[in-house]
Known about the structure:
The protein contains nine helices and 15 strands. The protein is an alpha/beta fold. The protein has helices at 2-26, 70-82, 98-104, 118-121, 164-172, 184-192, 203-212, 238-254, 256-265; strands at residues 47-48, 50-52, 55-56, 60-63, 66-68, 85-86, 91-92, 109-110, 124-126, 131-140, 156-160, 177-181, 198-202, 217-229, 232-234.
Amino acid sequence: MLSNKKNWFFMLALILLLVLAACGGGNDTSGDDGEVDDNGDYDLNDSYTVVSDNSFVPFEFMEDGELVGFDIELITAIAEEAGFEIDGEIQTTNFDGIIPGLQTGQFEIAVAGISITEERKGTVDFSDPYYESGITIAVPEDNEDINSLEDLEGKTIATRLGSTSSQFLEENLEDKTIDTYEQLDQVYMSVENGSADAAVYDLPNVEYYIATTGDGLKAVGDTYQAEDYGIAISKGNDELVAAINDALATLHENGTYDEIYDKWFGASE
């Protein structure tokens, strides 16, 4: 009789253990396939190598030996929100070296006023857009002949090497001479010293340069080829892209994005 009672208690305990195990298993939302779990966490590295430019005011530029600007503050806030560190300091390179550097694995994240294009999406991944831009024309203040894209026919135009502005000019003008430069100050100086008739580049940079540095230049014509800037990420980092997008959305929601924007561009609309 005692043996039967022991067996009965043993079977009851076993049943309870099985029920508890089944309940515990129902709360496990993580998988072995690397997918995002229900609490929004991502399988990220502790740190990532970030690269930028150093002459695209007000997005990224050197001031008193320090890399500053809208993009720099934004990617720092995104990294903090997403929960990863920037590996060392943000690296810098010429703009035309950023995409190749992401392709070869030299860098993992790039923020440098990079326009999202179908061609670039073939080689790197992009975050959701974080800034809407476009292309505009800068000429000397006393120039009355150039007021539109059509007026650039037959002229010498300065722009940046590897930029969408350079590609835009190639595709939309037939008779032109395009001088490309690695550094943006060289682009504007070529107009100021008379070696180029006009500069064509991204609207926010043109306006910022004229307002802060470019005495003797003015912006003319329409804004062409509306463009969205995105954070570029080396291919194969899907969870990093998703984490950056989530962080960017949170910064919009909690007002951090607007604070950074207002600091560099004035009150946001």
